[in-house]
Amino acid sequence: MLMTTAHYLALWQEARTRFSNQLQAITVQDLHKKLGTSPNSVGFLIRHVADVELLFAKNVFKKTDVQVVARTVIDKRDTGEWTHLADLLAYQQTAFEQLQAAIQATTDWEGTVATPEFGTKTKAEALGRIVSHTAYHAGQLAIVLKYGN
After folding, report:
1. Residue 24 to residue 9: CA distance in whole angstroms
2. Cα(11)–Cα(42) distance, rounded to whole angstroms?
3. Regarding the domain delimited by 5-147, which CATH topology (the fold level of the hierarchy) does it fall under?
4. What is the DSSP letter of 32?
5. What pLDDT is attached to residue 116?
C-alpha cells in the first residue's frame, strides 16, 4: 500500500520533534557542551542536523530554490564556531521549513534518487534516511545536554 504525501509529512513532522522539542530549553552555555572526548558540541549538532535537512531538500527532493553551504558536512568536524544560539535556531527553523515544503511537494514517492552518500533509493526510502539521521543526532543531543560539560 502506497502512503500519501500527507502521511509521510505527518511521520516526518512527528519524528523531528525528538530534535526540535529539545531546542526550547537550550541556552548559550549549552552550545559548548561536549560529552567526554566526543568531537561534537551541542552547537555543532544543531547546525549539522539543519545542514543535512537542507541538503535533502535540495538534492534529494529537488527543491531548487534552497541555498545551502553545509559547513558541518564539508568540514567533517566541529570547528568550535557554532556558538550563536539565535542564529542556530533560525537556521534550523529554515531547514525545517524547507524540508517540509519539499516533502509537501513530493508526489512520486516510488521515484528514485541517487546520491554519492547512500546510493540509489526511492524517495520514500530517502525520507526514512533523513528521519533516522535527525533522530540519531537528537539522541546524541539529549545525552550531551544531560551529561556533557
Report:
1. 22
2. 25
3. Four Helix Bundle (Hemerythrin (Met), subunit A) (1.20.120)
4. G
5. 83
- Buried residues in 113-131 as b, exposed as e (16+ CB within 10 A): beeeeeeebebeebbbbbb
Domain boundaries, the chain: 5-147
Distance of CA 113 to the CA centre of its chain: 18
CA-to-CA separations, 91 to 3, 38, 41, 60, 97, in angstroms, rounded: 30, 24, 17, 19, 10
Q: What is the pLDDT of residues 120-137, one digit of tens each?
A: 999 999 999 999 999 999
Q: Give 113's strand partners.
A: 121
Question: What's the N-to-C CA distance of the chain in angstroms?
Answer: 47
Residue 5: how many CA atoms within 13 Å on its side-chain side?
A: 10
Which residues lie closer than 8 Å to 38 by C-beta, 6 or more apart? 144, 148
Q: What are phi and psi of 73, to 5 degrees?
A: -80, -40
> 40 is written with which cell numbers?
561534537
Q: Can you give the pTM of this predicted structure?
A: 0.94
